[in-house]
Amino acid sequence: MSYGVFIVNLGSPDSPTTPDVRTYLREFLSDPRVIDVPKFLQQTILNLFILPFRPKQSAEAYHEIWTDEGSPLVVSTLKQRALLQERLDIPVVVGMRYGNPSTRSGLEELAKKGVTKFLLIPLYPHYAMSSYETAVVKVQEELAKMGNPMEL
Q: How far apart are the first and last CA of the chain?
């Protein structure tokens, strides 16, 4: 059996531009564990009240914190991965619940490295349906789509 570690964090837009922030917000806020209302109401709120206005405001905020390396959250998560990898003799990969690198791409990377069983580490300070649970469920869903090639 070949082991690995999969670190999952919330995610970030690909860039601090309005189109990329809109894409990110659409994925994030379409998650039923984030906005816990019936899908029709969720999509109405998202498409009529949030996506027409919020991406521009959020892009401006992201622009304020963006670094030359990219999104601070993604950069710090990749640094955590590198530090953990220095201490382990098994593959350590990163995926984001929303955005890139995606959950799916992280799982595919583990599979390419021959991992058959992995430890999932969602980087959230406590359990919440809108954070920890959605990350774990997403990993399970992606494993099922992949034909469950690895054991979680």
A: 13
**Partners of 5 in beta bridges:** 92, 119
C-beta separation of 110 from 91 below 8 A: yes
Half-sphere exposure at residue 76, Cβ-oriented, CA atoms within 13 angstroms: 11
DSSP-assigned beta bridge partners for residue 22: none
Task: State the DSSP string of 96-151.
Answer: EEEESSBHHHHHHHHHHTT-SEEEEEE--SS--IIIIIHHHHHHHHHHHHTT--SB
Token pair listed for 21: 């922030």
Question: What is the distance between the alpha carbons of residues 119 and 11, in angstroms, rounded to a whole number?
Answer: 19
The whole-number average pLDDT for the span 16-45 is: 96
Nearest CA to 77 out of 4, 139, 7 is that of 7
Nearest to 58 by CA among 29, 25, 32, 35: 25
Average pLDDT, the chain: 96
Half-sphere exposure of 128 (CA within 13 A, CB side): 11
Q: Are strands 117-122 and 92-99 parallel, antiparallel or unpaired?
A: unpaired
pLDDT bin (cut points 50, 70, 90) of residue 8 is: very high
